[in-house]
Amino acid sequence: MLNINNAASKIKREILVRIAKLQLEGKLEEGVHYIPREMAPRNADPFRCCVYHDREVLRMRVIARLGHSVEDYDDEKKLAEYAREAMVREKPTEPMLTVLDEACNACVRAHYLVTNACQACLARPCMMNCPKKCIEITGGRARIDPEACVNCGLCMQNCPYHAIIKVPVPCEEACPVGAISKDENGKERIDYSKCTFCGACMRECPFGAMMDKGQIVDVIRKLMEGKRVVAMYAPAIAAQFRAVPGQLEAALSKAGFARTYEVAVGADITAEKEAHEFEERMDRGDVLMTTSCCPAYVRAVHIHVPELDGCVSDTRSPMHYTAQIAKRDDPDCVSVFIGPCLAKRKEGIDDPYVDYVLSAEEIGALLMAKGIDIGECAGAGCDDQPSATGRNFAQSGGVAEAVRVRLKRPERLKPFVINGLDVAGMKQLAAFGKAAASGTAAEANLVEVMACQGGCIAGPSVITNPKVALGQLKKYVDSGRK
Question: The CATH number of the domain where 303 resides is what?
Answer without folding.
Answer: 3.40.950.10
